[in-house]
Amino acid sequence: MKYIPEISFWKDKELQISGFQFFILEELITDDLNPSDHSPYLPHRLNFYAILIITEGEVNHIVDFKVHTLQKGDVIVIAKGQIHAFEEHTEYKGYLVVFSEAFMQKYMAQASIARINHLYNYFLRQEKLNNPDYNQILFNKLKEELKSDSSSLPNIIAALLTVYLLKLNDANTHLVTTSVDNRYLEYFNQFKLLVEQNYSKTRDAKVYASDIAISYKHLNEVSKEIVKTTAKSFIDNYVILEAKRMLVSTSLSVKEIAFTLGFDEPTNFLKYFKKHTSLTPVEFRNALA
């Protein structure tokens, strides 16, 4: 099968701003922009952050194996590490903004980055947001400022992105976490970070509760309040998502993936994966061949 490539930022292109690119979707897949290392219409894994905004038409966009229907005014943010693909043979217009982690760390304030990371947390956000007014403001401002040769241009672009993303985050927070205790959000963010760092070492929710210094019962309450599932289910969902990503974005054998994910025996991984997906790892991989 053809494995899903991981796409790094445009290191070999001379960019106006290092770590930042702005595309008109209609111009994205032209001869001079068409990437040689992958097809935008086939799933590929991003090593940077993206904002996809639709201004006209309707399109189905795949992110992490889910199909999202986007229409005029819709915006979807795609986090570093997620897998996505454009739909081919569909008439729609819009634009794509991409930026690297290095750009974000260099030009955005740390307090803002924390909130922006909350927006890019795909466990805590709406699948899409409709924000036509701010979308148009961002588009107009980016077009205007990118004509400049100011030495402060990266800072200006970062400021525009920061304002836009913070407003998106406020809208998303209102939709997703209305009336949720901030302390619950803090606990969940700690839990999620620990899972991301340690899922290959342990899938025991009680261990994570202990690390956060709360009871297992309290962690379950937090998880159910924030993501509507138990802490154990959240861990399992995360492990399965990483397993799927590895199956389609690497040439590692199922045995190697099992050990990478922290399973003592490949057969245990096989049973675990089939329990949660109704497919074996090989069946899932072949389905995307």
From TrEMBL:
The keyword DNA-binding is assigned to this record: yes
UniProt GO molecular function: DNA-binding transcription factor activity; sequence-specific DNA binding
Entries under InterPro entries matching the protein: AraC-bd, Homeodomain-like_sf, HTH-like, HTH_AraC, RmlC-like_jellyroll, Tscrpt_reg_AraC-type_HTH
Family annotation (PROSITE patterns): HTH_ARAC_FAMILY_2
Keywords for the protein's UniProt record, in alphabetical order: DNA-binding, Transcription, Transcription regulation
Domain HTH araC/xylS-type: 189-287
One Pfam family of this chain: HTH_18
Cross-referenced SUPFAM superfamilies: Homeodomain-like, Regulatory protein AraC
Record flagged with keyword Transcription: yes
Identification of the protein by name: HTH araC/xylS-type domain-containing protein
Organism: Labilibaculum filiforme
